[in-house]
Amino acid sequence: MTRIPIAAIHLVALLTFACTANAADGVIEGTAFYQPDSQKPWRYARYYVADAKKGHLAEAVVCLTDRQLRGLRPPMESRTVTVGQEDYRFIPETVALRIGDQVKFTNSDATLHNVMALGGNESFNVSLAQDGEFTQTFRRAGNLKQPVKIGCSFHSQMQAWIFVFDHPFYAVTAENGRYRFEGVPPGEYTLELFHPAGGMRVSRAVTVTAGQTNSIDLRTSPADIIK
Amino acid sequence: MTDTLLNRREALQTGALTAGALLALFADPRFAFPAQATEETLVPFLDMPRAKPGSLDWETLTEWLTPQDQVFSVSHYNVPDVKPDGYRLEITGLVEQPKSLTLDELKARPKSDQLMTLECSGNGSSKGFMGAVYNSRWSGTKLTPLLDECRIKPEALEVVFIGHDQKEETLRKGTPRETTFEVPFGRSISLADVKKMDLLLAWERNGEPLTQGNGAPLRLIVPGWYGIANVKWLRRIELRSTRYMGRFMARDYVTVRGERRGDAVEYVETSVSKMNLKSIVARITRQTAVDGKIPCKAYGAVWNDGTEIALVEVKVDDGPWQPAKIADDPKSQFCWRFFSIDLGALPPGKHKVVSRAIDANGRIQPASDDDEIALKKTYWEAYAQWPREVQLEG
């Protein structure tokens, strides 16, 4: 039943496509996993871990973090991701963008909803009737640490997170937990994962060498939850 | 596995799960209802929003006493930060002996517990607001002996409960009689009703001090009445000789319902007070298909204003109403009871499962097309049967 965030798949695909393969660059790829702890159950794991045995973690934000990445390879053109309000949910719940990208919020429910930025670098509050639309351009990068938290002022059940990056190496994992960054300039980076709904945060140091692929799986557990 | 299944009495007494029981229940990312077998897996409801903290997650409901992270909090005014030091509860108005008590003075009084399921009267009004209900052991001191000590004057007929939260209100906006004033949150109960009930001044929930969101340091607990009556951040109790008609008595939390009189429908406005009879299917589980059909079970909860519950029935698609098994333990007058039912082996495809409750007086939880709900024009008191939809894969 866990819905694959379609936008996430498109993002990962576009990212892979947009980054020009370059012999002087490297690749980082891997899978995000969630390992349960019977003493600290994650009540909402069922939305993000489709197969308990495999443990692939969906809707985790994976990115590289490094000061030198800022301003790297400016985007060719901005992209628009659609976030729908459907069955009193924001779908997809977690979105990752580049500075200058846009989110088009839509409402397919037969009720008045509202799109409200609850924190981070943005401030907006727009009500949407059924079939209404509202597009927001995201001009400030909070990267992994400062997502824009979205809510609906009428329905506290609704939530979404929008992560805005100032470089191209970010992904939201799909149901298979996979991420892949191509065209990474050689150097030392921190590879980070944060799951906004679960609160797990892990990071690994990674060295990228020209023409090489780093396969790094990111394993999270309740011990990695940052309150 | 059976010897580590949760003992409900233990859970009730401690308010917590033992490590061994936790292991049994949470070894798998999917949660298990105490009576659920390990081979049962959750069948998620179709078209429902995801659960999140601050709201009851029906699909993982196992705890009879609701953990704090599942507890909702609604405030119409602000959420005050009332520090315990310097806090005072005033009892004033038509009493011979007004009082002003510190929290320590209240805690020095005889301690009493009240087990109660508290539901927001708007709960169930949309699928985006269905988790505003939770069960608690509230601890505090009884209100009645305190009021007796204040010696209520004979002309008093109304007990008003005032909170620390407040806001500017405007009446008759846009008219020549528009008026604006600052007002604290207030709700009232008639003195006659207060005398019939056993109200509690609570400073603890499930053994912990109240959180700021749930009304710290002191909250009124009104067994069997909707959340709105359970005034948070309690500041003052006033005895009055006229009815109190604040916003949350007279304008909001007023149910407008059509009642048939002969051929006509007349609309009546009543105050939201006692919790209505309500049940809900919390989750549906399945096991591996046998001969192409899927064995399923349904689990749920039923609650009301404290009237004895007689029966919970569950219906699948257009089938007959079948009786569910209501748990006898744990059980407390003003608390929800959990129920379960074997739905039998269902064919693959989409199915609708719904529960309804019947109390000892014969009152039946209505469907959304029954007059009681269909002729209701306001969203408060949303206690209709709530059909659940699932998709069973072979």
Topology pattern of chain A, helix = H, strand = E:
HEHEEEEEEEEEEEEEEEE
Work out the strand percent of chain A: 35-45%
How far apart are the termini of chain A? Answer: 28 Å
- Residue stretches of chain A low in confidence (pLDDT < 50, at least 5 long) are none
CATH superfamily of the largest domain in chain A: Carboxypeptidase-like, regulatory domain
Outline:
Chain A has 227 residues and is mainly β. In chain A, 7% of the residues lie in helices and 41% in strands. Chain B is mainly beta and 394 residues long.
Name the descriptors:
heterodimer, A: 227 residues, mainly beta, Immunoglobulin-like, 5-stranded mixed β-sheet, 4-stranded mixed β-sheet, 2 helices, B: 394 residues, 5-stranded antiparallel β-sheet, 7 helices, 11% helix, 38% strand, globular
Q: Can you describe what's shown?
A:
The complex is a heterodimer of chains A (227) and B (394). Chain A is mainly β and 227 residues long. In chain A, 7% of the residues lie in helices and 41% in strands. With 394 residues, chain B is mainly β. In chain B, the strands form 5 sheets. In chain B, strands 1-14-15-19-18 form a 5-stranded antiparallel sheet, with no helix packed on it. Chain B has a 5-stranded mixed sheet with strand order 3-2-11-6-7. In chain B, strands 4, 5, 8, 9 and 10 form a 5-stranded antiparallel sheet that branches. The longest helix of chain B has 8 residues, at 19-26. Chain B is globular. Residues 1-33 of chain B have low confidence and may be disordered. Classes of the chains: A mainly beta (227), B mainly beta (394). Chain A binds chain B through residues 1, 34, 36, 38-39, 41-47, 49, 52, 87-89, 93, 111, 152, 154-159, 197, and chain B through 19, 22-23, 25-31, 42, 44, 47-52, 54-55, 57, 59-60, 72, 126-131.
Which helices and strands occur, and which strands form pairs?
The complex is a heterodimer of chains A (227) and B (394).
Chain A: H1 6-18, E1 26-34, H2 45-48, E2 61-65, E3 80-86, E4 89-91, E5 94-98, E6 102-107, E7 113-117, E8 125-128, E9 133-137, E10 148-151, E11 159-165, E12 170-172, E13 178-184, E14 187-194, E15 201-208, E16 213-215, E17 218-220
Parallel strand pairs in A: 1-16, 1-17, 3-6, 5-11
Antiparallel strand pairs in A: 1-13, 2-12, 2-14, 3-4, 6-9, 7-8, 7-10, 10-11, 14-15
Chain B: H1 8-14, H2 19-26, E1 41-43, E2 88-93, E3 99-102, H3 103-107, E4 112-119, E5 133-142, H4 143-150, E6 158-171, E7 179-190, H5 191-196, E8 200-205, E9 208-209, E10 219-221, E11 234-240, H6 247-250, E12 254-261, E13 264-271, E14 278-286, E15 294-303, E16 309-316, E17 322-323, E18 325-326, E19 337-346, E20 349-359, H7 371-374, E21 388-392
Parallel strand pairs in B: 2-11
Antiparallel strand pairs in B: 1-14, 2-3, 4-5, 5-8, 6-7, 6-11, 8-9, 8-10, 12-13, 14-15, 15-19, 16-17, 16-20, 18-19, 20-21
